[in-house]
Amino acid sequence: MKMKDRINRTVFELWTGELIFGLLAQAAVFFFPDKLRYSACLWIGVISAMAASYHMWWALDRSLEQGESEAPKQIRLQYVLRYLAMCIVLGAVGIFFGSYVLAAFAGLIGIKISAYMQPLTKKISRLVYGEEILPPVIEYLYDDEEIKEPAKEQE
Predict the structure, then answer these.
(1) Contact, 47 vs 86, CB < 8 A?
(2) CB atoms inside a 10 Å sphere around CB 83
(3) Confidence (pTM)
C-alpha cells in the first residue's frame, strides 16, 4: 500500500503547508545567536503540529462514527487532550532549551498558517493524488419522485 493511500488527502495538505512554513521559518535562523537550538526548537514545534493535525483528523473521523450523543463529547475530549499535549511540548522545550520556547511556538502555529496556505497545498496535493473527484453536492430538486413540483392552486 502506497503512502498516499494511507494518509488522508486533507492531512497531507496540512502537512505540506506545515513543512513549507517550517522551511520558511528556518530562514530566520540567521537572526539568532544559537542557531542549533533555534532550529531544534522550531522543528520540534513543526513535528508537534504535524502530529496534532493527524490527531485532529483521527479524532474527528473516529468521533463522527459514534452516535449523535457521543460525538460532541468525544470531540471535546480529544480537543483538550491535543492542547494539553501542545502545552507539555512547550513546557518541555522551556525546561530543556530555555529561551527558545517562541521558536517551538512558531512551529506549532504552523498548523494555523498551513490552513491559510490551502490554495497552494491543494495544487501540490493534485500533483500527488491527482484530480479530486467530488460527489455532487446539490441534487436536482425535481428529479426525485417524492418531491414534485407544487400544484398550482385553482382559483
Answers:
(1) no
(2) 11
(3) 0.75
